[in-house]
Amino acid sequence: TLTQHRGRGALICFEGLDRSGKSTQSKRLLEYLKQQGDVELWRFPDRETPTGTLITAYLENAESLDDRAVHLLYSANRWEKMQGMVKKLESGTTILLDRYAYSGAAYTAAKNIQGASLAWCQASDAGLPAPDRTIYLHMSPTAAASRSGYGKERYENIRFQEQVAQQYNALAQQEPASWSIVDADQDVDVLSTEIQHLAMTVLDDVKQGRALRHLR
Ligand code: TMP
Ligand code: MG
């Protein structure tokens, strides 16, 4: 029988250093994709949840926490939203992510803690829905640092961001087929257009029946 079935939504993730333009570009893509169907923008850390409150205090240096404890809080902050995310996707809504598990792995691995390898950092997110595409806003740490609003929170310093960039690079190499690296240090409108085209190819793949995978 021919049943009219609205397929699942796509999961598209934005990653990049602090101030690389993820929030701007994800909001622009949200507005663009609203013309195509149901779409939502989710951001991690989600600062509204109980774990999110702790994470914010930590980021503003109001709280000092063990590095592994913080890592697991960030991961828990994603797990809290997991069931809702899967339901949304299954109901046909596309979800854009402003940071996700790759931030979790890259930022903790960048700390170079004895025993917390990149693999250790990825383990707590294994099983979460995997993005159909991760759009990496590539920008040099120096260029990002010169943008306004930089330097107020923990992690926002060039030295640390250089380490984060190295870890992102390692993550991109693990899944070259699902990562798109774009130049974030170019005209904002040109970049938006590039990202719109990218996103449409992802929506097409998903429409063709591409299955939702899980992080490993
Ligand atoms: P934001 O600037 O996108 O709000 O994110 C706040 C900081 O948290 C940013 O420096 C990246 C960092 N971060 C982690 O360290 N681990 C994570 O899992 C996530 C999502 C963000
Ligand atoms: Mg930030």
From TrEMBL:
Keyword Kinase: yes
Similarity-based family: Belongs to the thymidylate kinase family.
GO MF: ATP binding; dTMP kinase activity; nucleoside diphosphate kinase activity
GO BP annotation list: dTDP biosynthetic process; dTTP biosynthetic process; dUDP biosynthetic process
Residues of the Thymidylate kinase-like domain: 14-195
Annotated protein name in UniProt: Thymidylate kinase
Keyword list, A-Z: ATP-binding, Kinase, Nucleotide biosynthesis, Nucleotide-binding, Transferase
GO cellular component annotations of the record: cytosol; mitochondrion; nucleus
UniProt superkingdom: Eukaryota
Root EC class: transferase
Pathway field: Pyrimidine metabolism; dTTP biosynthesis
EC number: 2.7.4.9
Residues of the full protein shown: 46 to 261 of 306
